[in-house]
Amino acid sequence: xxxxxxxxxxxxxxxxxxxxxxxxxxxxxxxxxxxxFVTAGLIEHYQxxxxxxxxxxxxxxxxxxxxxxxxxHQLSVDNDDKIEGLSKLTQAVHELGGKIFAQIYHTSRQALxxxxxxxxxxxxxxxxxxxxxxxxxxxxxxxxxxNILEFAQAAKRCQLAGFDGVQIHAAHGYLIxxxxxxxxxxxxxxxxxxxxxxxxFLLEIYQAVRKEVGAxxxxxxxxxGSDDLLFRKGLRxxxxxxIALRLEQVGIDGIEITAGHYESGTxxxxxxxxxxxxxxxKHGLGPSLAPFRRIGMGLFAPLVDCYFNKISKFSVGxxxxxxxxxxxxxxxxxxxxxxxxxxxxxxxxxxxxxxDIVAVARGFIADPYLYRNMQQNMAGPQCTYCNKCxxxxxxxxxxxxxxxxxxxxxxxxxxxxxxxxxxxx
Length: 425
Ligand SMILES: Cc1cc2nc3c(=O)[nH]c(=O)nc-3n(C[C@H](O)[C@H](O)[C@H](O)COP(=O)(O)O)c2cc1C
Hints:
Number of helices: 14
CATH architecture: Alpha-Beta Barrel
CATH topology: TIM Barrel
Shape: globular
Number of strands: 12
Low-confidence stretches: 419-425
Helix content: 25-40%
Order of helices and strands: EEEHEHEEEHEHHEHEHHHHEHEHHH
Bound molecules: flavin mononucleotide
Distance between the termini: 22 Å
CATH superfamily: Aldolase class I
């Protein structure tokens, strides 16, 4: 059925009403202290996006225990000593009329252990991660139970700090996603094997979180629409839709659709990869890679970029085909993220009934006022999906590193915000 809503029509997630249907998707900010405490820089980052009238901000992935931490300087919700800073962040966003969810995750096998002060990594099973060269060990049953408990405690912490909701990150090959996917979950116990067993970790996390935060606190999920794991036992859309239906049955309030694991070529951030490898080696986590991998990548950088340009090529609205399969069968709001940063493409996604809400990540880095600019028919800086921001997490702050777009952004942010046309549509 055709959707008659505009990008600026209100929509409800659980008991929370958003004043529009374009939200900011999670991006690791690299703006926190080394231990993951909120800083003035992080608050300013989100104030800019809130000033732009953005109906909902989702923070970058925040870890709930030390094994779950992916990169230095990312947000952490692992301890009560973080609540004070988190409260300052939510207050700053609320004062500007914004709403903010925390995204909670566990990095599992998709992080280099050394930069975050670990010597090893954990995963559902001991399956080698080829893109970073990480060999994790399998979690014990006791550790699984501990993770469920810690996830729920972290969600409660976020509620106490004033967040308007929590997003459970069950996508991109991180821990929960790793449990769902047969390629990464080879367990023989009650958490591996059948569909019911592979979904158990996610369901137990959801139930533990719900118990902590109560029935009225909005909880949403980020889930792949496809694992994009060619020649491996990845999940296809039909099975992921079944997972979403099960979560809807137990009470999840909304679901954001994305795709891919690291080893599928990070198809969740499809973009233009020319120059990516050299940038990552120089300005990102490259120096922390094993020497043979770093040297090899340096020698073959143009080939590596070329490979990524093939398997993780940009296209407008690159997850819409998956999202629409979820929208067909779910009653809760379906959010689609990926390659949507023009008003026309976003409105078309709603008009086609592909999703109920559009999420934007890199577009908000290029233009923190994206929402207000669209509302007022103003042309703001446009993300080119050059992925230079994606080459830097953990080392350099989340920002726009396309020189031309960054210059436009700086100029825009210097202008007074409200001297704009009033013909909001
Ligand atoms: C620098 C960077 C950091 C990201 N960090 C996260 C994250 O913390 N959690 C997450 O779910 N996705 C993360 N993503 C993926 C985005 O949320 C989004 O799914 C992806 O970029 C596609 O959306 P876009 O085309 O609007 O950028 C990140 C992407 C980028 C570029």
